[in-house]
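Objective 1.3, modelling of assemblies. Example input:
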Amino acid sequence: MSGPQTIFDKPNTYIGKSVPRADAVRLTQGRGKYVDDIQLPRMLHAAFVRSPVAHGRIVSINVSEAKAVPGVTAVFTGADFVGQVEPYVGVLSHLAGLRSAPQMPLAVDVARWTGEPLVMVVASSRAIAEDAAALVEIDIEELDPATDMERALDADAPVIHAEFGSNLAWERLVEAGNPDAAFARDDVTVVERRFRFGRHTGVTLETRASVVEYDPSERMLTYWYSGQAPHMMQFILAKHLGLPEENVRVVSQDVGGSFGIKIHTYGDDIATAAAAKILGRPVKFVADRLESFLTDIHARDHVVDGRIAVTADGKIAALAFDDVTGIGPYSMYPRTSAIEANQVLNLTGAPYLIEHYRARARVVFQNKNMMCQYRAVGHPIAMAVADGLLEDAANEIGMDVVEIRRRNLVRDDAYPTVSATGMKFDDLSHHKSLDRLVEMMDYDARRAEHARLRKEGIHRGIGLVSMVEVTNPSPMFYGIGGAPIASQDGTTIRLEAGGAIHVSSSVTEQGQGTNAILAQIAAGVFGVPLDRVKVTTGDTRSTPYGGGTWASRGAGIGGEATLQAAHALKQQVLEVAATILQSTPDKFDIVDGHVVDADGGPPRMSLSDLARTVYYRGNELPSDLSPELVATRHYRVSDFPFVFTNGAMAAEVELDPETGFVKVLNFWAVEDCGRVINPQLVDGQIRGGVVQGIGGAFYEECIYSEDGQLENATMADYLVPMAFEMPDIFVAHVETPTKTSVLGAKGAGEAGTGGAPAALMNAVNDALRPLGASIHQMPMTPERVLKALGTV
Amino acid sequence: MKAAEFKYERPGSLAEAFALLEDGDLDATPLAGGQSLVPMMNFRLAQPGMLVDLSALDEIKGISGDGGGLRIGAMTRYVDLAASALVAERAPLMAMALPHIAHAAIRNRGTIGGSVALADPAAEMPALLLALDAEITVQSSAGTKTHAAADFFLGMYETALQSGELVTAITVPAPAPDRRFAFYELARRHGDYAMAGVAVAASGAPGGVCSDYRVAFFSVSDRALRATAAEAALDGKVPMDGAEAAIAALGEIPFAGDLNAATATKQHLSGVVLKRALERV
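Predicted structure (tokens):
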């Protein structure tokens, strides 16, 4: 890459420094502005009547009593939106064979999961809308539901979409080498396990919320959105509501967490927009916690039969698995619900040299809430299957679990490489990261201590994972398949008259500190103090066009666009300075808000003097100088489909065999996300990710009854990880900058969530092994541990 | 969700409260700390016509000595119980258990009377009162009645409380000088309802034989209940010496599973918590 490589050594760079984020004070004082904070004149409120059954034919809907409630403006059924909203289908062309049925915001004929919106009531308050919703009479003829994904493909299973003839949404087989021959070798040990990963969801502090205003005089729709992909939503709203794209503005102010949950098309959100357009009045919909559990996308829900063959010297001879995953009754629009299975196929065993590989995934429809992309898409499954099999195999052949990794991890000097599944890797550091991990956790001493404690009846275990994480995706992720999802992002930086800079970028902030790192990059590269930077993100009207923040792309892609824009603006400013100071641009630099001589010395001119000269007193400038004090740059990854990161993590747990309780004592994460922009924010991402990984491993599960009722849709019954149970999490970094950008940053947002479950499961099995038991089902609840032990 | 419309009154005396609660046309429900009732209203699972807020009734608040025991007004909050030196001295079992009851924000509002009147089978307080041989005073405009805790909890959210009556006080008898207590629960996260929990009381010298055992379980059945066969199995024994026989006697309990533990798991964990509590007596 060409560009200002020297920026990282500059005295005024903020890159690599844990400076406080600018919005911390505002947010901790409760001055954040979320969607529910928006109050517009004449605004109405929506409530939904949702399907009480998992599968049912809508025989009749009577809304007359609901309509008569004072304060109710309108009641919409699915049929009312036919012709108003163009149906949407969650398929992408690069996922060959994927099929899904058209969806409307409200079910029209058949309800296909408990919680699916059927009727929308719009009233002067949410409470009145709920009063009226309770008066809607719906006659539903119950149909047999297909809820169990493992039986959804059986010949006698109810078929959810008759036109498809079965509940298979997608199937893909990946094969490399000759796995059959490798498994049949007489010098290998074969280990087989069945893994189960429960359904869970990303519980955002701020629930999904929409405020939509439509101005018929200009045919202009404005959508305040608690989400992470404003331009994608702009396209979707325009297309499905029949508006020109430029007539839709999407605004994300502060977002109270998203984790991938808010990056999809939800019927209730689209219905809110349609109602605002039809009524010509603003409409607000804020999902309550019950609605969130019933309808926010769920994730995971995989059953994987895996096999590994290893030689006596610990080399992986072959890896194979078969994955079944249930996605609910539709593939989610527009990202589809096949990406997670695809990631599992692509990433399982990716850190290791594996020649012989076979993987099949089947994605099936079922009458449960929809499943789609949540933080660390597919990674927890891929890492737990590969590293679970690997550690079990190591124990079968009597080899230490660190040693077997050292014998199989791709060498740090071997890159670029291509995996058995065709993934291209570069700039990874598996060995260095593993070495750092082993040192950091004092591995040998800890093993010895565990052996000693075991004699005292204390059952501790250590588990590891070596992992990769998909970050900085290129157009090969979504755009290639026809999705309206940008992979390039842009940043515009403007020098203000007062000498500050304003950064506007198409990546988004959903709480993780994107705006803070953009400011750090811009301040350092351009040359102003950090407090002279203001950042705007999340507005399709005032930012460049781009994808937003997901798949750990904010820093790597948005950050690089910002670096390039800051560098470009600096060159433009220096040109003006050189003219005013009657020299050449190369003689100057910008430091702390002042133009200075490149070789040091006192400030020659402040940026505010320069900007005011340009903006107010252009008469002082030569007539042939056309100063441009604004610069825009865009960036996309073009040489690789993704820029992978790697990491090594370990968990230490203590098992109580009488109760099945597992206490996580310590967690260590070594992460190589390339250039670290703000260590504190990166460590926060890793720790938060690990905590969500602990959630998936021990606590979180959407529990459905056989007939498709979600049984734990409250914060009392759906267990998110809480502070009291969290271990100390130690984080260290290996920095191998990616060569695909000047900045060299890869993503860090999903590593913890992707890797932690595997390390935790291995640690529990390490503790269980001397007791003759093992567990390969998550969450590893006390009851499941007791079952594994044969106690109950 | 938003609660359905309701009326609200905050009477200044018990007499006013009874007048409201006894007027059938009002469909009134008493509001204590609201930590269970308000969420149920917000789910519209409860839709009372009127809330009668008891928070201004100073006459049923506070902790006082009652002989060598305790009298606790029904509207006394958990946070006040936890801060009370009198409770720590005369009902140490309660002091042991309070940090396990939900979270600080809930303890700041939740009341002892509210918990007793609701009779959630997973709640700690009913079991504590069983183990403490506490009495529950209920009042209505017709007068005052007193129930032994052992006769009060009848089923899931079901008590001896009659319509129009309020729980007004809990009395805990003075503990014998050699009375000892233990509390143990297994909750998946600190502050959650337990998968199984037990409160134990017994009389005897440390390390020696004990008598007059009380073994009260919660979150294992449709109500908090005493395991009387286990108590009998323990009688006259050093706690740990009787543990095995006591655990074997738990079959008397009508265990009921929930999302976190099937019936068999409840039974197993009941044995574990009992053993661990007995270790601590």
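The longest helix of chain A spans residues 554-580.
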